[in-house]
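Re: [help] complex structure
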Amino acid sequence: MGEPWSPLPREFYRRHPTAVAPELLNKILVRADGRAARIVEVEAYAGSEDPAAHSHRGKTPRNATMFGPPGHLYVYFSYGIHWGSNAVCGDIDEGAGVLLRAAEPLSGLDLMREARAAAKRDRDLASGPGKLSQAMGLDRSFDGADLVTMDRGVSIVSDGTPPPVDPVVSPRIGISKAVDLPWRWHVRDHGHVSGKRSTRT
DNA sequence: TTGAGGATTCTC
DNA sequence: AGAATCCTCAAA
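Output below.
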Protein backbone atom coordinates (compact mmCIF):
# COMPACT_ATOMS: atom_id res chain seq x y z
CA MET A 1 0.00 0.00 0.00
CA GLY A 2 1.27 3.46 -0.86
CA GLU A 3 -0.10 6.94 -0.40
CA PRO A 4 -3.86 6.83 -0.02
CA TRP A 5 -4.11 10.20 -1.79
CA SER A 6 -2.39 11.23 -5.01
CA PRO A 7 -1.80 14.78 -6.31
CA LEU A 8 -4.34 16.35 -8.64
CA PRO A 9 -3.10 15.90 -12.24
CA ARG A 10 -1.60 18.70 -14.32
CA GLU A 11 -4.70 18.81 -16.51
CA PHE A 12 -6.83 19.74 -13.50
CA TYR A 13 -5.05 23.10 -13.38
CA ARG A 14 -4.81 23.67 -17.14
CA ARG A 15 -8.15 25.50 -17.32
CA HIS A 16 -9.49 28.97 -16.68
CA PRO A 17 -9.10 29.87 -12.98
CA THR A 18 -12.86 30.40 -12.67
CA ALA A 19 -13.32 26.75 -13.59
CA VAL A 20 -10.57 25.46 -11.34
CA ALA A 21 -11.39 27.57 -8.27
CA PRO A 22 -14.74 26.04 -7.23
CA GLU A 23 -13.35 22.56 -7.79
CA LEU A 24 -10.49 23.23 -5.37
CA LEU A 25 -13.03 23.50 -2.55
CA ASN A 26 -12.85 20.41 -0.32
CA LYS A 27 -9.48 19.40 -1.79
CA ILE A 28 -6.60 18.99 0.66
CA LEU A 29 -3.38 21.01 0.82
CA VAL A 30 -0.65 18.73 2.16
CA ARG A 31 2.97 19.06 3.28
CA ALA A 32 5.50 16.27 3.59
CA ASP A 33 5.90 17.08 7.29
CA GLY A 34 2.38 15.89 8.01
CA ARG A 35 0.50 19.16 7.84
CA ALA A 36 -2.78 18.92 5.93
CA ALA A 37 -5.77 21.24 5.59
CA ARG A 38 -9.01 21.12 3.64
CA ILE A 39 -9.46 24.10 1.30
CA VAL A 40 -12.71 25.92 2.07
CA GLU A 41 -12.27 29.34 0.42
CA VAL A 42 -10.65 30.40 -2.87
CA GLU A 43 -10.50 33.28 -5.34
CA ALA A 44 -9.78 33.23 -9.08
CA TYR A 45 -7.31 35.63 -10.70
CA ALA A 46 -7.04 35.74 -14.46
CA GLY A 47 -4.15 37.17 -16.46
CA SER A 48 -4.10 40.28 -18.63
CA GLU A 49 -7.91 40.34 -18.73
CA ASP A 50 -8.10 40.80 -14.95
CA PRO A 51 -7.10 44.24 -13.57
CA ALA A 52 -6.96 42.84 -10.02
CA ALA A 53 -4.42 40.14 -10.86
CA HIS A 54 -0.73 40.55 -10.07
CA SER A 55 -0.10 39.37 -13.61
CA HIS A 56 -2.25 42.05 -15.20
CA ARG A 57 0.62 44.31 -16.18
CA GLY A 58 2.84 41.59 -17.50
CA LYS A 59 5.60 39.37 -16.25
CA THR A 60 7.93 40.66 -13.53
CA PRO A 61 10.38 38.86 -11.23
CA ARG A 62 7.72 38.82 -8.54
CA ASN A 63 4.94 37.17 -10.54
CA ALA A 64 7.06 35.08 -12.91
CA THR A 65 5.71 31.85 -11.44
CA MET A 66 2.20 32.80 -12.56
CA PHE A 67 3.41 32.81 -16.15
CA GLY A 68 4.92 29.34 -15.85
CA PRO A 69 3.24 25.94 -16.22
CA PRO A 70 -0.04 25.23 -14.38
CA GLY A 71 0.04 23.13 -11.26
CA HIS A 72 2.81 25.10 -9.59
CA LEU A 73 2.56 27.14 -6.39
CA TYR A 74 2.80 30.94 -6.68
CA VAL A 75 3.74 32.45 -3.31
CA TYR A 76 3.82 36.24 -2.97
CA PHE A 77 4.71 38.63 -0.16
CA SER A 78 2.46 41.56 0.74
CA TYR A 79 1.76 44.20 3.35
CA GLY A 80 5.31 43.74 4.60
CA ILE A 81 4.24 40.81 6.72
CA HIS A 82 2.20 38.15 4.99
CA TRP A 83 2.56 35.42 2.40
CA GLY A 84 -0.19 34.38 0.00
CA SER A 85 -0.35 31.05 -1.80
CA ASN A 86 -1.89 30.34 -5.19
CA ALA A 87 -2.24 27.43 -7.56
CA VAL A 88 -1.11 28.47 -11.04
CA CYS A 89 -3.82 27.75 -13.65
CA GLY A 90 -4.42 27.95 -17.38
CA ASP A 91 -1.63 27.73 -19.91
CA ILE A 92 1.96 28.88 -19.87
CA ASP A 93 2.19 32.68 -20.22
CA GLU A 94 -1.46 33.11 -19.26
CA GLY A 95 -0.67 34.44 -15.79
CA ALA A 96 -3.72 32.91 -14.11
CA GLY A 97 -4.10 31.41 -10.67
CA VAL A 98 -6.34 30.57 -7.74
CA LEU A 99 -5.63 32.18 -4.37
CA LEU A 100 -6.04 29.75 -1.48
CA ARG A 101 -7.83 31.93 1.10
CA ALA A 102 -8.82 29.59 3.90
CA ALA A 103 -8.60 25.98 4.99
CA GLU A 104 -9.70 23.68 7.78
CA PRO A 105 -6.72 22.07 9.54
CA LEU A 106 -6.88 18.29 9.43
CA SER A 107 -3.51 17.06 10.68
CA GLY A 108 -0.19 18.42 11.87
CA LEU A 109 -2.10 20.78 14.15
CA ASP A 110 0.83 20.96 16.54
CA LEU A 111 3.11 22.35 13.84
CA MET A 112 0.44 24.82 12.75
CA ARG A 113 -0.11 26.14 16.26
CA GLU A 114 3.63 26.52 16.66
CA ALA A 115 3.81 28.48 13.39
CA ARG A 116 0.88 30.70 14.40
CA ALA A 117 1.19 31.74 18.01
CA ALA A 118 -1.42 34.45 17.48
CA ALA A 119 -4.14 31.91 16.80
CA LYS A 120 -6.27 31.45 19.88
CA ARG A 121 -8.55 28.86 18.36
CA ASP A 122 -7.99 26.23 15.72
CA ARG A 123 -10.40 28.11 13.48
CA ASP A 124 -7.91 31.01 13.52
CA LEU A 125 -5.08 28.85 12.20
CA ALA A 126 -5.85 29.12 8.48
CA SER A 127 -8.95 31.32 8.10
CA GLY A 128 -7.33 33.81 5.71
CA PRO A 129 -4.72 33.79 2.95
CA GLY A 130 -1.89 35.01 5.18
CA LYS A 131 -2.92 32.71 8.01
CA LEU A 132 -3.18 29.70 5.72
CA SER A 133 0.30 30.27 4.34
CA GLN A 134 1.77 30.82 7.79
CA ALA A 135 0.08 27.75 9.26
CA MET A 136 1.30 25.58 6.39
CA GLY A 137 4.79 27.08 6.54
CA LEU A 138 4.64 28.39 2.97
CA ASP A 139 6.96 31.28 2.16
CA ARG A 140 9.21 32.45 -0.66
CA SER A 141 11.15 29.17 -0.63
CA PHE A 142 7.98 27.48 -1.91
CA ASP A 143 7.36 29.89 -4.78
CA GLY A 144 7.44 27.77 -7.93
CA ALA A 145 7.00 24.44 -6.15
CA ASP A 146 5.38 21.81 -8.37
CA LEU A 147 2.14 20.59 -6.80
CA VAL A 148 1.94 17.68 -9.25
CA THR A 149 5.42 16.19 -8.84
CA MET A 150 5.66 17.33 -5.20
CA ASP A 151 9.24 18.43 -5.82
CA ARG A 152 9.27 20.43 -2.58
CA GLY A 153 6.94 18.22 -0.59
CA VAL A 154 3.81 20.31 -1.06
CA SER A 155 0.76 19.26 -3.02
CA ILE A 156 -3.01 19.40 -3.37
CA VAL A 157 -4.81 16.06 -3.21
CA SER A 158 -8.33 14.68 -3.04
CA ASP A 159 -9.66 12.33 -0.39
CA GLY A 160 -12.75 11.64 -2.47
CA THR A 161 -14.86 14.43 -1.01
CA PRO A 162 -16.52 16.22 -3.94
CA PRO A 163 -16.69 20.03 -4.18
CA PRO A 164 -19.85 21.48 -2.60
CA VAL A 165 -22.86 21.59 -4.91
CA ASP A 166 -23.99 24.95 -3.53
CA PRO A 167 -20.87 27.01 -2.71
CA VAL A 168 -21.27 30.67 -1.81
CA VAL A 169 -20.17 32.83 -4.76
CA SER A 170 -19.29 36.46 -4.06
CA PRO A 171 -16.92 39.32 -5.04
CA ARG A 172 -13.25 39.05 -4.20
CA ILE A 173 -11.89 40.60 -1.02
CA GLY A 174 -9.22 43.23 -0.47
CA ILE A 175 -8.86 44.38 -4.06
CA SER A 176 -9.46 47.83 -5.56
CA LYS A 177 -10.08 46.92 -9.21
CA ALA A 178 -12.67 44.67 -10.84
CA VAL A 179 -14.34 44.59 -7.42
CA ASP A 180 -17.67 43.35 -8.74
CA LEU A 181 -16.55 40.12 -10.41
CA PRO A 182 -18.03 37.20 -8.41
CA TRP A 183 -14.81 35.23 -8.37
CA ARG A 184 -14.69 34.14 -4.73
CA TRP A 185 -16.03 30.76 -3.70
CA HIS A 186 -16.36 29.30 -0.24
CA VAL A 187 -18.02 26.36 1.42
CA ARG A 188 -21.44 27.42 2.71
CA ASP A 189 -21.81 27.76 6.47
CA HIS A 190 -18.25 26.63 7.11
CA GLY A 191 -16.60 27.86 10.30
CA HIS A 192 -13.11 28.17 8.85
CA VAL A 193 -13.64 30.75 6.10
CA SER A 194 -11.94 34.16 6.36
CA GLY A 195 -13.39 37.34 7.75
CA LYS A 196 -15.23 35.80 10.66
CA ARG A 197 -15.06 37.44 14.01
CA SER A 198 -16.16 35.46 17.01
CA THR A 199 -19.60 36.90 17.64
CA ARG A 200 -19.97 39.72 15.15
CA THR A 201 -22.03 39.66 12.01
C1' DT B 1 17.34 56.52 -6.21
C1' DT B 2 12.79 57.43 -4.75
C1' DG B 3 7.96 57.15 -3.74
C1' DA B 4 3.62 54.91 -3.49
C1' DG B 5 0.92 51.08 -2.64
C1' DG B 6 -0.39 46.41 -1.47
C1' DA B 7 -4.87 39.39 -3.31
C1' DT B 8 -3.66 41.14 5.33
C1' DT B 9 -3.72 40.53 10.19
C1' DC B 10 -3.99 42.02 14.80
C1' DT B 11 -5.01 45.13 18.43
C1' DC B 12 -7.13 49.06 20.38
C1' DA C 1 -10.44 52.23 12.95
C1' DG C 2 -5.48 52.18 12.60
C1' DA C 3 -0.87 50.31 12.93
C1' DA C 4 2.50 47.06 11.56
C1' DT C 5 6.15 46.42 8.08
C1' DC C 6 8.92 45.88 3.72
C1' DC C 7 8.95 44.14 -0.79
C1' DT C 8 7.95 45.36 -5.61
C1' DC C 9 7.73 48.17 -9.48
C1' DA C 10 7.79 52.15 -12.36
C1' DA C 11 9.45 56.61 -13.02
C1' DA C 12 13.08 59.93 -12.99
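Residues 161 and 171 of chain A are 25 Å apart (CA to CA).
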